[in-house]
Amino acid sequence: MNIFKRIFRLFWAETNNAIEKLEEPIKMTEQGIRDLKKDLNKSIEALASVKAMSIKAGKEKEQYANKAKDYERKAMLLLQKGQNGQMPAADADRLAKEALTRKAENAKNAARAAAEHQKLQTNVNNMQGKVQKLRSNIGSWENELKTLKSRVKVSEASKKLNKQLSDVDSSSTIAMLERMREKVDQEEALADSYEQLALEATSVDDEIDSAIGQLEAASSADDDLLLLKQKMGMGDKTADETTDAPDA
User: Fold this and answer.
1) For position 201, what pLDDT does the model report?
2) How many CB atoms lie within 10 A of CB 208?
3) pLDDT at 241 over 60
4) Within a domain: residue 67?
5) Residue 72: CATH number of its domain
6) pLDDT at site 5
7) Which terminal residue of the chain has fewer beta carbons within 10 Å of its beta carbon, N or C?
8) Contacts of 103 (CB under 8 A, 6+ apart)
9) Packing angle between helix 23-84 and helix 3-12, nearest 10 degrees?
10) Rounded-to-integer distance, Cα 66 and Cα 68, Å
C-alpha cells in the first residue's frame, strides 16, 4: 500500500506544470484523497480478514487446551479404575498412556495456536493503528482542502476585483467629469442669459402698453365729459366765447 509514497507523489507530481494553475493541484488532491479512501477500504477489509484469523486462532487455542485437559482427566480416571480393580491394570495403563499422548498432541496444538494468535493479534494492533492514522489524515486533508478551496475562491474574486479596479483610468474619468461639469455650467449660464433677455423684452413691452393705456384713458375721459355737457345743454363756453368774439 505504501501510503506515504502515494502522498508524496500526490502533492509533488507534475509540480512544474500545475503550479501556475490552482485548479490542477485541487483536482490532483481530490483524486489523491479518493485513491486514499479506496486504499483505506482495502486496508479495513484486510484488517477484518486478519482479525478473523486471530479470533479463529484464539478459539483453536482454547479448544486444544480444553482437549488436553480432558485427556489428562481421562488418563487419571483410567489409572484410578486400574488401581481399584474396576479394569485390568495393564489395560488401564495402556489407555491412560494413549490419553496422555493425545493430551500432548493437543497441548502442542494449543501452544501453536497460541503463538499464531499472538502473532496475528500483534498484526491486528499494528494495522488498526495504521488504519486509524490513515482515516484521521484523510479527514484532516479533506478539511484542509475545503479551506484551501474557499481561499482559492476568495483569492480569485479579489484578483478579479483588483484587475477591474486596475483597468479603470481614474485620471481620464476625472477629466471627463470636469468636462461634463464645465459643459453643464455653460448650459446653465446660457439658460440664465436667455431668461434675462426674455425678462428685458417683456419689461419694454409693458412700458409701451402702459403708456398707451394712460393716453387712451385720458382721451376717452375728455370725450365722455364733452358728450355729457352737450346732453345737458351746457355746451363749451370757452368754445362759444371764442366763436362769438367780434373781429378786431
Assistant:
1) 57
2) 10
3) no
4) yes
5) 1.10.287
6) 52
7) C
8) 67, 68, 69, 71, 72, 75
9) 180
10) 5
Distance set, CA 213 to CA 176, 187, 217 (Å): 55, 39, 6
Cell numbers of 191, please? 439658460
CA distance 83 to 149: 87
Q: Is residue 39 part of a domain?
A: yes
Residue 204 has pLDDT above 70, yes or no: no
Give the mean pLDDT of 60-81.
94
Range of the domain at 42: 3-168
Amino acid identity of residue 15, one-letter, is T
Calpha distance 14→9 (Å, rounded): 9
Residue 87, domain member (yes or no): yes
Residue 242 has pLDDT above 90, yes or no: no
- Mean pLDDT calculated for residue range 203-225: 66
Q: Are 29 and 141 in contact (CB under 8 A)?
A: yes
Mean pLDDT taken over the chain: 79
DSSP 22: S
pTM for this prediction: 0.50
- Mind giving me the DSSP string for 48-60? HHHHHHHHHHHHH
Asked if residue 160 belongs to a domain, the reply is yes
| Contact assessment for residue 69 and residue 63, using Cβ atoms and an 8 Å cutoff | no
Distance CA 8, CA 102 (A): 56
Is residue 184 scored above 80 in pLDDT? yes
Cβ-based neighbour number of residue 204 at 10 Å = 9
Task: Please tell me the total count of domains within the chain.
Answer: 1
